[in-house]
Amino acid sequence: MLGPEVTEQVLRRVVGIAREQGVAPGKRFRVDSTVMESNVHYPTDSSLLGDSMRVLTRSLRKIAAECKEGAVEVIAHSRAIKYRLLEISRAAKSKTETGRARMRASYQKRLGLTRSVVRQSQQIMERLKKGRLPVVGSRLAVFRQMARLEQFLPLAQKVIRQTKDRVVLGKEAGEKVLSLFEPHTQVIRKGKAHKPNEFGRLVRLDEVENGIVSGCEVVPGNQADTESWLPALRRHQECFGKPPEMAAADRGFFSAQNERKAETMGVKHVVLPARGQLGEKRAKRQKERWFRRGLHFRAGCEATVAHLKHGFSLLRARYKGERGFQRYVGWSIISKNLFSIARYHEYQKRQPPVKEQAACPSQPDPQRNGVACSARSSVWPKSPSSARCQKPIAPAAAPAAIARAEDPSTGPTCRSATAARKARPPATMCPKRPKRPREKE
């Protein structure tokens, strides 16, 4: 299985190919952050307690199936769990003190059931370690389920502790568990009105020209964007060997220290809009043309994020665990970069060929100089010969051209083909060949 380290090496190689082919020179750079959701349901205390009981009970049943009959007795609490969940959901709708009391009582009953399952799991593990568990079936299957119990028991105990602190005691829980299956999930608040709380990880995206994402990082916790600015610049300098000429980000990345350090690293144009009321000097700086162009370039980051989320499945990570999360992010970005490189080359193929510069009018043109029509060439007198070129000039412009050619200070210049075409008089049409009469049979 490819880990995050291998994924990072592949991403750097793809960015290197884009740089070698001229797709991403690395002169312009923009950075943004977004939230990628974990593959979890909306976490509530009651649902987390239910997940704990369900996972532990399932492992205990599989262990009991491999042991001697009657050695391990597993009690099914599924019906009691369902009733407690209904009581909690009904009591939560009431905003009165009586409703809150009923909800606390239901939570305490559910906490009691979860504690009983946790105690039974601990007892089974101790019996197995001491050799007192009569296993008659596959010992490998028993040890596999023991490993699952060792994984989920600490998380179940944390869920019990945080539920008791929040619901029963009414105080804020310190370390929160948001999922038993994705314990690395964190609460991210980006200030969105439609989604104030997001459950996943914060991802930083570094982008250069033509939609190439040159770097990414799964940021620990709900880190402020100001702390991601300098690592992004250092990453860019490692990939391209030099700092960008222009670096842009939104105002979440702004701080005077970040701006000064970016200029010290060699960035010519640092586009970081300030927050709050602007002073006279700052307002003048942000109204300059290069700054406004940088802001327009930065706005393209939003389209890249939307393309990654909806086109390359960066909306929700499907791989399990923290390492799987990082691997999923890396391969989504690698796929997007390969797509951007192919799109760039396809656009280059569709571009019309560069038109050659108009040849000097002194060069013979059979369609314009009389080979095709002798009547037209007789109307055009030629200007005096010069060292630079000889160009056909219309009769009305001939005296001025002769005077300009005789003046030693100014020599004759080649006008464009369009100007010469506009100055020409209407051409005389060649007489049509008479039709030959048909011979009668």
Topology:
Elements: H1 4-20, E1 28-37, H2 45-66, H3 78-93, H4 97-130, H5 139-168, E2 186-188, E3 198-207, E4 213-219, H6 229-240, E5 246-248, H7 256-265, E6 269-271, H8 280-286, H9 289-298, H10 300-311, H11 321-350, H12 374-377, H13 398-406, H14 417-423
Parallel strand pairs: 1-5, 5-6
Antiparallel strand pairs: 1-3, 2-3, 3-4
Helix pairs in contact: 1-11, 2-3, 2-4, 2-5, 3-4, 4-5
Computed Rg: 38 Å
The CATH homology group name of the largest domain: Ribonuclease H-like superfamily/Ribonuclease H
Low-confidence stretches: 356-394, 410-414
How far the N terminus sits from the C terminus, by CA atoms, comes to: 91 Å
Determine the fraction of residues in helical runs and give it as a percent range: 40-55%
The overall number of domains is: 3
What is the residue-mean pLDDT, rounded to a whole number? 83
Beta-strand percentage? 5-15%
Question: What is the level 1 CATH name of the largest domain?
Answer: Alpha Beta
Class computed from helices, strands and strand pairing: alpha/beta
In CATH, the architecture of the largest domain is 2-Layer Sandwich
Counting copies of identical and different chains, the oligomeric state is: single chain
Order of helices and strands, N to C? HEHHHHEEEHEHEHHHHHHH
* Inertia-based shape: elongated
Could you give the count of β-strands? 6
Characterize the largest beta sheet: strand count, sense, and whether it forms a barrel.
6 strands, mixed
